Amino acid sequence: xxxxxxxxxxxxxRDLAHRYAxxxxxxxxxxxxxxxxxxxxxxxxxxxxxxxxxxxxxxLRGVGVTILFVGNQVIEFxxxxxxxxxxxxxxxxxxxxxxxxxxxxxxxxxxRRDGHWYFVRRRHLLWYGLEEPRNPLAQPPANWPENxxxxxxxxxxxxxxxxxxxxD
Length: 168
What we know:
The chain has 4 helices and 6 strands, in the order ααββαββββα. The chain is α+β, with helices and mostly antiparallel strands. The strands form 2 sheets. It has a 4-stranded antiparallel β-sheet, with helices on one face. A two-stranded antiparallel sheet has the order 1-2. Strand 4 (about 80-95) and strand 5 (about 100-115) form a beta hairpin. It is globular, with a radius of gyration of 18 Å.
């Protein structure tokens, strides 16, 4: 790749992490699995986006609201079609009545197929998870912009969020 192609590739790869966070938080499983190669390995015995979809569905039904904030990201190219990356993420996770703050690092493998970059694999590593003393969702509505403090309208205002939970 020349310098411009490498710059474009970095931008597309960075976008994968941001789209992953948005798709996870909004529970848009179609968008989430589309970020991965078609033959993605899922666990030890399964492959493919449908298997990945089932896995994400099970994992995400085990928690409530998630807020993933992507930070530092370093990308290194193995060649024109393969790269690895390290992505920092701050996570806020509703676990029943508990609220957990996490510091996460993802170690990613990327591959370019048909001119587009995809995740091949994401390894989720945890620095820590900390139970917060108060669940921020357990407060009265903010009715923003009237009040700055209080419960907002996300994630329930996302159509994909409502569809995900309506399947119960």
